[in-house]
Write a structure and sequence with these properties.
Strand order of the largest sheet: 14-15-17-16-18-21
Structural class: alpha+beta
Order of helices and strands: HEEEEHEEEEHEEEHHEEHHEEHEEHEEEE
Largest sheet: 6 strands, antiparallel
């Protein structure tokens, strides 16, 4: 939309929306347009489509397909529109609105609408309204846009064209189009023209954007598959030279007296003592070392010769399927595109299992002699959680001495019993097993009640200071061993 058409459009619809309360607000999932249902206007709505084609218009409220609600919708819902005015740049607008809180305080903010090359919506401070916003833009070195209606107006006209790449471009302007186009249509009002642009072109353009984004993903995967196919084909071609590499290596050893270190190419007689064979060399290596390189290349080529055909038979169909999928994406309608997106979506992540008491299963769990439960941290952060949040003061805490490892807790608090020596030694063995000393024959493990373990202020995750500790020597092992 050009600046003149936008100014005339805002001037036309501003009286309709000024003073209206936003009864509801949502974002249309298909187009990304923001819809503000205006209370007290006969079920009308102000629709703001920042993405191409960028338009603002008033029409009967239609819920459409709502996207998930965000902060912007919550902020606008229940507010009163104070003013709709042109913004500080030619292709921008401002919707100033106010909200009164529960104690009677009124706050005024503005929704900045950018319809230019970088379209988007953002909440900004309203200042003193649109006039203040333009004054601020002027002080920042940006000339304010004019609010005056141009003398040479002409009818509102929508014209459209497709570029050589097939992309659709739509523009709402004043009067006849000055550039070649595929079609155009005049309207009695700018609001009708903007509503037509949105109804006819917003979804096709949004669909094109979705197609391009998805096609880019598929094209990246297709290129990856094609590069893999080319690599395997090159390996198959290389594998055909395995015999040549081995023969050159053997010949190089047989004629090594005729080859000098530092030569880039060895020219030696073949076994018939008549044919000259040229063998490329690494000048930094001796003839024997170059022969060894050739033997290794021969072995590698033979290994690839055994594996490459099977790999190629797997990759080639995958590349074909990716190519067919790309063609499918480029011609897909909205329903087909949604189906393809669902097929390509990553599988949902499974929720972390929970223990009986509702804790997230971040810890390994063992049972030692006497039925005592032993918990083991899996990471430094889980060690912190186990020691300082899960463990109760009377639980026994274990850690390998002078070796990094997991925090281990034997849970006894609340049982009214004390674990016997066998249970303590088994818990200590678990701590030794889950430490850097886990492969040693005997490991020193300290233990104490969790009340005597603290974390220094500002310390890294997993670091703890222990007091009143006891030490036992154990062999690293798990209870089931």
């Amino acid at each position: 939309m050009d600046a003149t058409a936008l100014a005339l459009l805002i001037e036309e619809i501003a009286p309709t929306v000024a003073g209206a309360r936003v009864g509801d607000a949502w974002t249309d999932e298909s187009t990304g347009a923001l819809v503000l249902a205006l209370a007290g206007t006969g079920r009308r709505a102000l629709t703001i489509s920042a993405d191409p084609p960028g338009v603002i218009f008033v029409s009967p409220a239609s819920p459409g397909r709502r996207s998930s609600e965000g902060a912007l919708e919550r902020e606008l819902r229940g507010a009163t529109i104070v003013e709709l005015a042109p913004g500080p740049r030619p292709s921008s607008a401002r919707v100033v609105f106010s909200r009164t809180d529960d104690i009677g305080e009124t706050a005024t903010r503005a929704l900045a609408v950018e319809l230019g090359r970088r379209p988007g919506l953002s909440l900004v401070g309203a200042g003193a309204g649109a006039g203040a916003a333009q004054a601020g833009a002027a002080t920042a070195g940006e000339p304010p846009s004019s609010h005056a209606t141009p003398d040479a107006a002409g009818p509102p006209t929508v014209h459209w064209r497709r570029d050589p790449q097939g992309r659709l471009h739509v523009k709402l302007s004043v009067g006849r189009p000055t550039a070649p186009c595929d079609g155009s249509r005049e309207f009695p009002s700018f609001n009708d023209a903007a509503a037509h642009v949105y109804a006819e072109f917003a979804r096709p353009i949004a669909l094109e954007r979705r197609r391009r984004r998805l096609a880019k993903r598929v094209r990246i995967e297709l290129d990856r598959k094609l590069r893999a196919v080319e690599k395997v084909q090159a390996e198959i071609a290389e594998s055909a030279r395995a015999g040549e590499y081995r023969r050159h290596g053997q010949l190089l050893l047989a004629r090594k007296d005729a080859v000098r270190k530092g030569d880039p190419v060895a020219r030696v007689l073949d076994y018939d003592n008549a044919t000259v064979v040229e063998i490329p060399l690494n000048p930094a290596l001796s003839p024997a070392q170059n022969a060894e390189v050739l033997f290794r290349r021969a072995k590698r080529a033979e290994r690839r010769a055994a594996k490459a055909p099977a790999r190629l038979s797997q990759l080639a169909p995958e590349a074909e399927r990716a190519g067919a999928l790309l063609a499918e994406v480029e011609r897909a309608d909205e329903a087909a595109l949604a189906s393809i997106e669902a097929r390509l979506a990553p599988p949902p992540r499974e929720a972390a299992p929970r223990t009986a008491d509702g804790e997230r299963a971040r810890f390994r769990t063992y049972t030692v002699t006497g039925g005592w439960q032993v918990l083991v941290g899996k990471s430094n952060r889980d060690n912190d959680a186990l020691t300082h949040k899960v463990a109760r003061p009377g639980d026994l805490w274990f850690h390998a001495r002078q070796a990094a490892g997991s925090h281990v807790v034997l849970r006894k608090a609340g049982t009214g019993r004390e674990p016997d020596r066998a249970a303590i030694l088994e818990a200590a063995a678990i701590a030794a097993y889950h430490s850097k000393a886990g492969r040693s024959g005997r490991v020193a493990v300290c233990y104490t009640e969790a009340r005597h373990v603290r974390k220094p202020r500002g310390a890294a995750p997993g670091l703890a200071v222990v007091s009143r500790e006891k030490v036992v020597m154990v062999r690293p092992r798990l209870p089931e061993e």
